[in-house]
Specification:
Elements (H helix, E strand, L loop, with lengths): L10 E12 L5 E9 L3 E5 L13 E6 L5 H4 L3 E8 L2 E6 L7 H13 L10 H5 L8
Antiparallel strand pairs: 1-2, 1-4, 2-3, 3-6, 4-5, 5-6
Length: 134
C-alpha cells in the first residue's frame, strides 16, 4: 500500500467543473477539476493538450466556476505529476479557506447541478473519449 503524502484531505467532485489554465508558455487549456484540497487539485486534461503540461511547470487558473472565483482565479500551481489524461497540482499557496469552507463550496456546486445529471452517463462519457478534445 502506497502512503498518501497529501497534507489535506481531498474533496472528490462528482460534477464536471470546467476551468481554463494557462501554461508557462501562454497556452490556454480547458480542463476538468476532478478533486481539490486546500493545497492542490487533480485535473483531467484533454489528451492532445497533455504535451503542454510538464511536471514541475507552473500554471495559472484563468477561468473557474463561479463558486471558486474568489479562491482559484489567478491562483498559481505547480504540476506535481501527470499520468494518462490527469495531472496533480500543488498550489503555490493554500486556498484562502477552511476545510469546511471548501466542502461547503463543493457541496454547493454539486447541489446546483441538474438532478438527472450523471457523470458516469454513457452519453456524457462519450463526449470525453480519449480520441476527442473537450
Amino acid at each position: 500500500m502506497q502512503k498518501d503524502r497529501r497534507k489535506e484531505p481531498r474533496c472528490l467532485i462528482d460534477t464536471p467543473l470546467f476551468c481554463t489554465i494557462q501554461t508557462h508558455s501562454g497556452s490556454a487549456v480547458i480542463c476538468i477539476i476532478n478533486d481539490i484540497s486546500l493545497n492542490g487539485a487533480m485535473l483531467i486534461v484533454p489528451p492532445n493538450d497533455l504535451i503542454l503540461l510538464l511536471e514541475g511547470q507552473q500554471l495559472t487558473f484563468l477561468e473557474v466556476p463561479e463558486q471558486f472565483e474568489n479562491t482559484l482565479i489567478n491562483m498559481t500551481a505547480t504540476i506535481a505529476w501527470r499520468k494518462d489524461k490527469v495531472c496533480g497540482l500543488q498550489f503555490t499557496q493554500p486556498l484562502p479557506l477552511t476545510e469546511d469552507g471548501l466542502i461547503a463550496i463543493v457541496t454547493s456546486v454539486e447541489n446546483s447541478m441538474d438532478p438527472g445529471f450523471n457523470l458516469d452517463d454513457e452519453d456524457f462519457s462519450a463526449d470525453f473519449d480519449d480520441d476527442d478534445k473537450f
